[in-house]
């Protein structure tokens, strides 16, 4: 092992918002990289067949996509620091075609990677304590988290420490690395669900209990071919039982989940087959039988991991809010951006800023290496070097002083990152679709580009208000179309692209699955159809009513007419 | 390999494709048995004998350094082979959202 | 087929009996689960093992376990990870202290996982290179979660040293 790998970070201070690695963690990552280097060598020599190599490369985030290999790098609980972001920019420049793409699981993907470069790329990631472990494969994937964790005014508890505990616990888990299917866990610490807890294999909501942290547990939610809102499995799970209970839940899944049909292999299908009660009984039986002491999560362990997190020294001048208000009065464009792209902070004088990766007519979630570097610089200057990736494929600077927000916004404008459209119709989620993905049936990105160009007018966007469009290029639903207020699903009809619209989905606390509006539309009439839906909404809404609420109040018929009556 | 990509009509003609093992890039089987990065270098086979060609090619994929060999039906009315499906046209000519990543400098018109 | 224990090839004293083969009256034998009764009918001192299919619940062995010196778990393909849970449950729920043997088609890259779930021996698949398996056992020095092997705590978090 080289000396650099053992060296501590030069600053010597724990990074704000995420866990600081030590030499043991670094040695582990080093060993993991060398393991993969050996696996690649065995594949190239023919010792490993493609069939045998595939799950091994997938567990290191490496897919073979349409045009090349794609490497998905983990951003645990969506948090990274400036140093890590700069290394991602380096990788985009050196090994990719100068782009990175942020995903709905808060990770980053590089679309033009060579297998032979991958061990070196992983070694470079390891120098900044990053990896691609378990970003794919039938194992426990990257644990996702609230993008405003540790900052939001409405939060009860910062869930990132527990997300890190789950990351460590699930890393190369001996029993759960060959599950029937992939396994996704999300954790939130706010009563306002920003992690889609009910759309995960396991969703956890952390909150303070009478004797420490407790968790509400949801299970069996998911999108894909069979969208299901997760069931509420139990309340107030004590922190010390968190790992034991998760072990019991996933064991039951490993033992009884279907392995004969990949479309029926997710835990949601098992929970439906056994019924919530039947599944709960099996979990409780396992939980009662297991050696609980072995899996106990002691408070000292939680405290030790918490101590590895840097915390921001929040110290805004007393007139920060006043100065922000003044800047907003003086600059209408800035005022608009603040209205859409910020979130209330728990500390006086601070605010969280959302950097939209959804420019008009652009590719949702894409950033150039120059933009990645710019974000790293701005995070260092304005937000303690801490960067968050949201499942909406945007970037968040969590702790910005209100009196410095105007300066941040100006810098973002210079980097082409100041789109004021968060939560609006331009803030579209899209999977990579058929332009890159080997599973896709249709292209997602061009639809997103045409929609965001069509609704580029910022006044129009604000008038339309809260409207989430989510686009998936196939039924695997990486673009979360089931949970879109308007969902768009690409389908293949004899080699040509068609798009099916769903309305009324939501990933928030009012979780719901969108309902199919009617027959799939050809590509060239899909954008017009969305425009007709929006027009119908604007005509029929009452004051302050979101698109979703109008749909829920009036039902599908009106919207169906808007799309199909003209055809 | 994706079965959707491998569907063929009884008549017509096809080209044979794979991804290179080392870098994952798309390649097309040329007339001399070598692999080319350009679809315009691909040999066009009649669909009558294509299954045998695919089988023989798949058997030597480790030696050739490629993975996922399959056949792609192409249009009959074009001098450069143009796949009949959107998916295979995107594979042949590059992602539609980054014109600078096009695989051929002169992409045949009307391929999207 | 070579037998691997602690990363080394060891001699295999066991005979695996098929579904309709005659059961030898003496000597260590592994019987399929549906012939467990036949195996138990042999003299009490004769070593007996049973091969568990992946869909069996380990509880079916509860009564017979004191008589068993070996339980076989199997990987129909390396992707089917049910054997991990079976092995772990045998150790944890039934306190089984005998040999847990893996058969089928596991990958060497799964070896450390197998050991940490309580497996003691692996019947290597045809063509397997024992050196690759041995290397897989030496690859990592720490792990991040509890397992049924009694591993020494590393001192931070849930980390433990791998033996």
Automatic annotation (TrEMBL), chain A:
PANTHER family: BLR3264 PROTEIN, FERREDOXIN--NITRITE REDUCTASE, CHLOROPLASTIC
Superkingdom as given in the UniProt entry: Bacteria
InterPro entries with a match to the protein in the record: NIR_SIR_4Fe-4S, NiRdtase/SiRdtase_haem-b_fer, Nit/Sulf_reduc_fer-like_dom_sf, NO2/SO3_Rdtase_4Fe4S_dom, NO2/SO3_Rdtase_4Fe4S_sf
Protein name as catalogued: Nitrite/sulfite reductase
Residue ranges constituting the Nitrite/sulphite reductase 4Fe-4S domain according to the UniProt record: 136-287, 467-563
Originating organism: Gluconacetobacter tumulisoli
SUPFAM superfamilies per UniProt: Nitrite and sulphite reductase 4Fe-4S domain-like, Nitrite/Sulfite reductase N-terminal domain-like
Tagged with keyword Oxidoreductase: yes
Sample GO molecular function, one term: metal ion binding
Pfam families recorded: NIR_SIR (PF01077), NIR_SIR_ferr (PF03460)
Domain spans labelled Nitrite/Sulfite reductase ferredoxin-like: 69-126, 363-413
Alphabetized UniProt keyword annotations: 4Fe-4S, Heme, Iron, Iron-sulfur, Metal-binding, Oxidoreductase
TrEMBL record, chain B:
InterPro entries linked to this entry: DUF2849
Pfam families: DUF2849
Protein name per Swiss-Prot or TrEMBL: DUF2849 domain-containing protein
Organism of provenance: Gluconacetobacter tumulisoli
Automatic annotation (TrEMBL), chain C:
Pfam assignment, any one: DUF934
Protein name: DUF934 domain-containing protein
Organism: Gluconacetobacter tumulisoli
